[in-house]
Amino acid sequence: APSRVFAFRDVRWAPDPVLEPGAAVRTPQPVPLVIDNGSFQTRAGWACADPTVPAEPLLRFRSLAARNRGARGGTGAETQVGNDLGSPEPLRWLLRSPFDRNVPVQLELQELLLDHVFQRLGVSSQGCVDHPIVLTEAVCNPLYSRQMMSELLFECYQVPKVSYGIDSLYSFYHNRRQNWPCSGLVISSGYQCTHILPVLEGRLDAKNCKRINLGGCQAAVYLQRLLQLKYPGHFAAITLSRMEEILHEHSYVAEDYIEELRKWQSPEYYENNMHKMQLPFSNKLLGSTLTSEEKQERRQQQLRRLQELNARRREEKLQLDQERLDRLLYVQ
């Protein structure tokens, strides 16, 4: 059906505005600042009971940073963080993340993310951050990683208090109803890995926590490879950002895997539930209509250009060697 044909949105990230915090986050004393420090997305907001302050995160951006070297004769290197990147694909080879398996290991990049949070939330204290910080982390976070994070917050930002917590446990306690038991099994599927957390009588059983090194990142890369192998003519158009869009907006988790396989064996069910993705039109695909003579001529032109470029490089190298030889002879 035509309604089952979807076009890639290729959304560009809009830069985060600089927010002006209200008086409620400062008086009678600075309220805590909650930072969900995730490997896929960073969220930040104020933990304030005042109804004028939104309870939802005020800031959401990808936990990525890129440092451009800058053009020749320009202003030099420029660092962009989160939504300031605009679109990740042109800068894919420059993107850096402070996380490795959900554990922050690159504290220089983590400092860039924190600077972005404090600046865009309008933290106005001079020379320090006088708000208490509530920071999420992975379960059984290595002590060294927490030590470096604490050193960054206390030494660099002069934070008065810091509280660490596990995001999936916060979600478990927040969503648990009164008639539900205090024990349960939490499956936290993240971007780089998945954590399984048993909760017994309201407390985390840390000894039996497990981590699986599979997450949304591996699923997107695997889907990208499958589609690139199936459609080699669209190799460049099948980008990682589009694969993440398919996973987030056109995929679901099967509650009964065997039953889902039976459903998809039916041709009617397949036709009624299949999503078709429409790639944008590209003039590059028209190159296959060239004749063999035109292709041969184009190859000859490319070969001549390469030969001219190599000859120019050899001349420049000979000139540099001659200048160096002249200087050495002069010294001799």
Mean pLDDT: 88
Tally of strands: 16
Strand content: 15-25%
> How do the strands of the widest beta sheet line up side by side?
4-3-2-10-11
Number of helices: 8
Largest sheet: 5 strands, mixed
CA-CA gap between termini: 83 Å
Task: Describe the protein.
The protein has 332 residues and is of the alpha+beta class. Among the domains are: 23-69 and 77-177, Nucleotidyltransferase, domain 5 (2-Layer Sandwich); 215-278, no CATH class. 36% of the residues lie in helices and 19% in strands. The chain has 8 helices and 16 strands. The strands form 5 sheets. The chain has a 5-stranded mixed β-sheet with strand order 4-3-2-10-11. Helix 2 links the parallel strand 10 and strand 11. Helix 4 (216-230) crosses helix 5. The longest helix is centred in the last third of the chain and has 40 residues, at 292-331. It is extended and about 80 Å long. The model has no long low-confidence stretch (mean pLDDT 88).
Describe, in short, the structure shown:
This protein has 332 residues and is α+β, with helices and mostly antiparallel strands.
